[in-house]
Write a structure and sequence with these properties.
about 290 residues, globular, Tetracycline Repressor, domain 2, DNA-binding, 14 helices, mainly alpha, Arc Repressor Mutant, subunit A, 3 domains, about 0% strand
Amino acid sequence: MVKKQLIMEKALELFARQGFEATSVQQITEHCGISKGAFYLSFKSKDELIIALIDHFMMQVIADIDHIVRGDIKNEILLYKFYYTILQSFHNHSDFAKLLMKEQSQTLNDELMQKLHYYNSLLDKTILLLLERLYGKTVLKTKYDLMYCVKGFMSMYSHLFLFFNLPLDLDQLVRSLVEKTNILAEQASNSFLSKELVQITSQAMNEKISIEQILPMIDQKISELEESIEKESLILLRQHLIEPSLSPAIVKGLQENIRNHPHCKWIAYLIRRYYGDIGSGPMSQQ
């Protein structure tokens, strides 16, 4: 296991038991069986470690639901798949999900809060795409209110199985949320939120992805991965980003190769976003 991954996994165990504030770097290094010097070779501070954990968790969630919303899943089951994927992710990573919900408004500093705000804005963008795809003009006036309702459902129902240890029938829960969302989308007519109000608090919604953002991440992953199909796919995608030469089918296949790797999923998301933002190239045709 790469030392950085070891530190993240062991630190999460301590954070889940004690919280961010009460856990020291000394405790983390002792739990990992490494020196402080080895810790600081991987992370400059405890805050940087927490940011890395937030990045890892949120990248998985955002990348997964974005793939669903932009994919070819039939509209009849799209909302079900959306809710199921995100709630299952919260359940599978319950320790960290609980930690974020409990501590994000108490002990996190400005930099960490900005990181959470960034991912929240990306989540807003994906939910809006979902609503526009499912309901079109029906929610033209109410989609921003509906977006907040969807986020509220995700948050409040997650609390039930994260903090109260209730038996979880995920299928039943998701079907209930799908029904509620459809009723709101089809019946609600009064709106409170406007595009302008939402954009004031969600500046990242219009942030464009650039090659300059993607290439350093690809280079880092190429250096970290052992020889594998994911590494070879990253190399080919990197070359294609710089000098496009591959067919849309090949690029799509390469993206699928990396999308299911937990440490490459975010790169696949950014590549998909990049081609969507420029409105051209093989990925925009997906």
